[in-house]
Design a protein that fits this description.
alpha+beta, Alpha-Beta Plaits, globular
Length: about 300
């Protein structure tokens, strides 16, 4: 295990200290048939700092404000972030994130695309944020993580977090499959559906073949079974240009995001997909040959202020 000592007072433009650690990652394991939910395990020995916030001279946006609308250029760079929280801390953490962090994150120029509860992992909080490009990512993360608000609230955030370095840095599988036209933040009482992120772990040098198969046939069959595709991304080969926040490296992963009206609708989708003879007999066996393991499936329900609602 390599451990980097706390950096204490890393002072940038706002003079806000940032503390972080490197952690040891243990192996991931999961089992699922295509379209089924799976449970993944990942161990870490030290806590990595989780979140920070930004206070501007003009003040933070009000908690109830809708936040900026993402423009059509979002998002060429995406982070899929999975946080393991201490037992019983997910609901307080969601309240803190939605009420204190979401709008200041957006105010830097990035887009908080969605915040979620993982239905199958009661201590898991998942969120997705996007950037127009890598240079924007570095600039906007620096603005956020060097902020006065992070300095004021980091202890409160970190008290809930057991691990925060299960992070994928992603780029669009194709221009047509990136997030775009992301809605504004919802009003109170907005509809709650289901967002499903399916992670396909490709064999070395097989990611392009899997992408082509998805575009040629897999997508059509999943949508015929009832899925609505939101976006598809692949792990980025670009260097992490904000090393204070580590990302997973050395993996080739295709991430497909789809929405359903409810968990029951997703279960019906799984049933229809298994009954699809071409899927079960030809398409999925061919696709599985390109993968090192069965897919990892995240069934996600939105928090009150998540833009993505399912």
């Amino acid at each position: 295990m390599t451990t980097k000592p706390c950096q204490g007072d890393i002072v940038a433009q706002t003079g806000c200290p940032v503390c972080y650690f490197a952690t040891e990652r243990t192996a991931m394991t999961a089992t699922a048939l295509p379209g089924q939910r799976s449970v993944v395990g990942m161990g870490h020995r030290t806590i990595l700092f989780g979140l920070s916030c930004l206070l501007f001279a003009r003040g933070s946006p009000a908690v109830g404000s809708p936040g900026p609308q993402a423009d059509a250029s979002c998002c060429s760079v995406v982070e899929l972030r999975q946080y393991t929280l201490h037992p019983g801390r997910r609901e307080p953490f969601i309240e803190l994130f939605d009420g204190t962090f979401a709008d200041p994150l957006d105010a830097t120029g990035m887009t908080v695309i969605g915040e979620f509860r993982d239905l199958d992992r009661p201590d898991r909080f998942v969120w997705i944020r996007g950037f127009q490009d890598m240079s924007s990512r570095a600039r906007e993360l620096a603005a956020f993580y060097d902020s006065d608000l992070w300095h004021a609230r980091r202890n409160e955030a970190n008290a809930s977090i057991d691990d925060s370095d299960n992070v994928l840095l992603l780029e669009p599988a194709s221009p047509a499959l990136r997030f775009k036209d992301i809605p504004s933040r919802p009003a109170a009482g907005a509809r709650i559906g289901l967002v499903v992120a399916t992670l396909y772990y490709a064999k070395p040098n097989a990611l392009s073949a899997f992408e082509a198969l998805f575009a040629r046939s897999l997508r059509r069959h999943t949508e015929a079974a009832g899925a609505r595709t939101l976006a598809a991304y692949v792990t980025s080969t670009q260097k992490n240009n904000f090393p204070r926040l580590p990302v997973r490296a050395g993996e080739e992963i295709f991430v497909w995001l789809a929405e359903f009206t409810s968990p029951d609708a997703y279960a019906a989708y799984e049933t229809r997909l298994r009954a699809d003879r071409k899927w079960a007999g030809v398409l999925w066996p061919s696709a599985r040959e390109q993968l090192v393991r069965d897919p990892e499936v995240l069934r996600l329900t939105p928090t009150p202020r998540s833009r993505l609602r399912g």
